[in-house]
Structure to design on (226 residues):
């Protein structure tokens, strides 16, 4: 059934990576895929434009169904293949609520990380202000404390929404993985770094690890001064 799936993706993109983790967790290996480079604007190709009016990645097709937003695609896979592979959304409504909360909170962590790690990429040189970057760093440190607090409350060895690996981990791990890669000091988020070390060798994550990260394990040090 995975042969009827087509994924357009880019290496290192958290939205693409989370969908690839979900496919691995649901035992849907063997899907068709095409790697596209953002830097070369390959994602603006006609194939993607025909499927995705936003011209973004991931772009995902299963049979005649097209699902482009990564959260939606991950949830679709869990619903369509509920009894296959790992169960990523628990049955209990209260447990579900926590999984969904951590999933959607991931956008906060990703945006605040990007505002620091990619500041020079997003902000034109003539508009950059050290005071703005300082505020962004402070905002990110506050966000990291929040996530560290979540894990502290859950207890040692916990995943993001409890004792089991869930869709919260599928969605958020690709963002968390940027912190050690971009040299974030461990003391700024010790619990999050413990979580990273615990989860990074999970088979679904190893199988979908960004290829260019394997070639160049060390990323830029844009988070070292938090």
């Amino acid at each position: 059934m995975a042969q009827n799936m087509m994924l357009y993706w880019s290496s290192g993109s958290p939205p693409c990576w989370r969908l690839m983790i979900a496919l691995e967790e649901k035992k849907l290996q063997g899907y068709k895929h095409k790697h596209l480079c953002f830097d070369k604007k390959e994602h603006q190709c006609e194939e993607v434009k025909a499927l995705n009016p936003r011209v973004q990645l991931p772009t995902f097709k299963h049979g005649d169904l097209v699902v482009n937003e990564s959260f939606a695609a991950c949830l679709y896979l869990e619903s369509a293949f509920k009894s296959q592979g790992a169960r990523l959304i628990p049955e209990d409504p209260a447990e579900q609520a926590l999984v969904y909360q951590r999933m959607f909170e991931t956008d906060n962590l990703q945006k605040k990380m990007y505002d620091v790690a990619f500041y020079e990429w997003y902000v034109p040189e003539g508009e950059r202000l050290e005071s703005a970057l300082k505020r962004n760093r402070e905002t990110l440190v506050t966000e990291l404390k929040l996530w560290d607090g979540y894990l502290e409350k859950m207890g040692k060895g916990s995943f993001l929404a409890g004792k089991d690996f869930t869709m919260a981990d599928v969605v958020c791990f690709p963002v968390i993985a940027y912190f050690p890669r971009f040299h974030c000091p461990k003391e700024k988020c010790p619990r999050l770094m413990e979580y990273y070390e615990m989860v990074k060798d999970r088979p679904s994550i190893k199988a979908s690890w960004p290829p260019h990260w394997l070639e160049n394990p060390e990323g830029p040090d844009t988070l070292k001064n938090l």
